[in-house]
Amino acid sequence: MLKDFLNGVRVLDLSQFLPGPFATQMLADLGADVLKVEPPAGDPQRRLDSITGKPGPEDSRSAYYDVINAGKSVVAIDLKSEDGKKAFEALLRAADVMLESYRPGVLERLGFGPDRLKALNPGLVHCALSGYGQTGPNRLRAGHDINYVASTGALGASGIPEKPVMGWPPAADYASALQAALTMVGALVGRARTGEGAFLD
């Protein structure tokens, strides 16, 4: 049965918006135990209107957020506080996979750089799902689906030349989620053979 493939695999999801949460939702669908670690204010996707893409009232809840986080547990942790860091360390020690979508360097500034992660959990599969990768000239740039699609020239093929139209669903977001989910599962298979964790950029 599909639901049993990743039974017993513990996943920490530190991502927000669409790509990371959809990637870990696929792991949850395969049976993984996914814990979504959100900042105290929560994932901004919680309040985004599914149609307009604009934030709703403070007490609003996006159905889209619920769909891409189905089957997960959610906890709020302040990773900038000492108590939050200690709580997160305990979660890391017990995790098989961690996915995060920070810009390069953020996790290290929080005290969880590569050396620290390896010391806490040598078998951890760490997936860094960022807009432009950990190296290169664009590594620190912010980005969303429309930026990635536009950079390929694909917007020029939609709408009319004077007014490109953003496609739906967001192809780059879903493609990156699929690639991340596949490589995380592949890294788990590799770890089963070698006992070693992995860093996925």
Report on the architecture of this protein:
The protein is of the alpha/beta class and 201 residues long. It has seven helices and six strands. The chain has helices at 19-29, 63-68, 82-94, 106-109, 114-120, 145-151, 171-194; strands at 10-13, 33-38, 73-76, 97-100, 125-128, 198-200. The protein has a six-stranded parallel β-sheet, sandwiched between helices. Strand 1 (10-13), helix 1 and strand 2 form a beta-alpha-beta unit. Helix 1 (19-29) packs across helix 7 (171-194).
Rounded to an integer in angstroms, the radius of gyration calculated over CA atoms is 17 Å
| Overall residue-averaged pLDDT value | 91
Low-pLDDT stretches are none
Strands of the largest sheet, in order across it?
3-2-1-4-5-6
Order of helices and strands: EHEHEHEHHEHHE
* Distance between the first and last residues' Cα: 30 Å
Shape: globular
Q: Mind summarizing the main beta sheet?
A: 6 strands, parallel
Q: Please provide the count of β strands.
A: 6
Helix content: 25-40%
Strand content: 5-15%
Q: What class, by secondary structure content? A: alpha/beta
**If helices are DSSP runs of H or I spanning 4 or more residues, what is the number of helices?**
7
